[in-house]
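Quarterly update, task 2.4: zinc ion-bound model.
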Amino acid sequence: MTHIVVGLLLYSVLVKFGIFPNSQILIGLVALGALFPDIDHPKSYIAHLSIWLRASSRVVSLGGHRGITHTIWASLLAFPLALLVLRFFGLGFIEAGAFFLGYVSHLFADSLTVSGVAWFYPFDKHRVRGMIRTGSLFEVLVFVLTSILVLQVLGIPLPRI
Ligand SMILES: [Zn+2]
């Protein structure tokens, strides 16, 4: 869930600056892109979405979690591949861009965690790391604060408790 929120925060900022139009399809694609890198984890949410994705998950997970799908190369491939698939649905560059945005936001978010991300794997195994522990209270805090930020940027009033 944190990944979707981080992706949507980036998206909402770009909408504010007029780079992306505000549309539900784009929101969905940012969310999908934000979940996609974890396809290398068979227990991930994305791997459970369809049989096809589960099969791909088995293949990619052989390289280990946060392996090849968590690299700059995979994110660069994400755009043309998304474009190829989205063409079948009559969608184009902006939609593929939204998927790409979600994908990259995932890698940035994972880079803030203790396990980190090896962006240039397998050429450079150095991992960019942060101090957030996945599933920790700190992650929840980041999640809540980011959610509030998203709502603020989108101009949606916070629910009153
Ligand atoms: Zn990840």
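Highlight for this quarter: Helices lie at 2-16, 24-35, 51-60, 72-87, 93-111, 137-154.
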